[in-house]
Amino acid sequence: MKSEYVNPFVEATVETFETMCGTVPKRNGKLEIKSGVFKTDDLVGIVGLSGNVCGAVLMAMSVETGLKSVSSFLGEEISEPDSDLMDGFGEILNIIAGAAAAKLSSFKIKLALPTVLLGQDQLLSGKQISPWIIIPMMFPEWGSFKIEVSMEEKK
Amino acid sequence: MKVLLTDDSTTMRKIQKRVLTSMGITDIVEAGDGTEAIKKLEENNYDFDFMLCDINMPEMSGLETLRKIRSTPECAQLPVIMCTSVAEKEQVMEAIKAGATNYVVKPFKPDDLQKKIESVIKIEK
Amino acid sequence: MALLKADYINHILDSTGETLDTMMDLKLLRYGSLGVKSTTFDGNQEITSIIGLMGKNDFMIRLIMKSPVTVAIRICSEFLGETLEELNMDVIDAMKEIVNIIAGAAAAKMSENNFLLTLPVVLLGSKVSYSGAKSSSVFIPLFVPECGRLKLGLTANE
Question: How confident is the model at residue B125 (pLDDT cuts 50, 70, 90)?
Answer without folding.
Answer: very low
